[in-house]
Amino acid sequence: MTDEPRQPPSGPNFVSAQQVAERAGVSRSAVSRAFTPGASIGRETREKVMKAALDLGYQVNDLARGLIARQSRLVGIIATRPEVGFRALLVAALSKALIARGNLPVLLNTGDTEREMQATQNMLLGYRAEATIVLSGSPPETMLEGARRTGQPLVLIGRSDPGTDSVLADNEGAARQAAERLVARGGRRLALVGASIGTQTIVERERAFVEAIRNLGAEAQVVRGADADYAGGETAARRLFDRGAPPDAVFCVNDLLAMGLIDHARQSAGRRIPEDMAVIGFDDLPDAARSTYLLTTFFQDPVAVAAKAIALLDRRQSNPAAAPVLERVPVAFVPRESG
């Protein structure tokens, strides 16, 4: 007679605390106390529980424990297009820092609309997330208010809000330095390449550069791509070169825009970098150092930004009534061949 085929398990078969209790010959509550720091339990009982847990491969269900306690170690990281540019580096740095802190980072890739952002916030509140870190440029006010009502710590990165802890780079200082550098190199037809999405980070860099150029006795034409990505840089380059006399010095509000600009300038407009056009970016992405670009830029340290965000979470949890803080992270000028 042929053996009947074995049916695959219908789902994960995790070892339960009750199974550990039965293996150790103790009560279910004894297992719970054994895995609760500071709980009262005899040494011999604890040793029995730990041996049984090791033999069975038991792991505490931290999520269930957190939900019972009406809190968890989950920290939500909310980002739009988290795979793009500096955000990808920042998500990696934040995840590493949160794990070291004892948290479980949960990345939620949300859209740009208020409805999508609110759905994300509702999910985090439903899972009793310990805190939320928002990387997206423009979270709706309803999201901020929802976190404030529940007392959930909230940190914004790349945007500030009067009632919320925030982390921003020194955007204005870097933009002024870029203006001075390009003018000192002999730039006469200057341009700023930005993006129409108009996040606070982009706006600060755009405004500071244009003002600095005016203070230096010159003018800068402004062109913007639809988004602050490689395609946006190509679009901005086409607009610049369609206007007649092309610029000889350009500041791009991030490296992705600069790379799109450089490739179009070389391949479609026959421009040499930096002989015909100097270019400065922002972020110092890994590709910026490649021989293809050798991009002069500003290094925005994702580890330092993540550390500031974690410090703000710690401060908020230890003192919920403290006044909101805006932290500025310094950036470092990285001179290379492009500008």
TrEMBL record:
Q: Does the keyword Transit peptide apply?
A: no
Annotated source species: Jiella pelagia
Q: Which UniProt keywords apply?
A: DNA-binding, Repressor, Transcription, Transcription regulation
Name the CDD domains for this protein: HTH_LacI, PBP1_LacI-like
- The keyword Repressor is annotated on this UniProt entry: yes
Protein name as it appears in the record: LacI family DNA-binding transcriptional regulator
Q: Name one GO molecular function term.
A: DNA binding
One short Pfam family name for this protein? Answer: LacI
Q: List residues of the HTH lacI-type domain.
A: 15-69
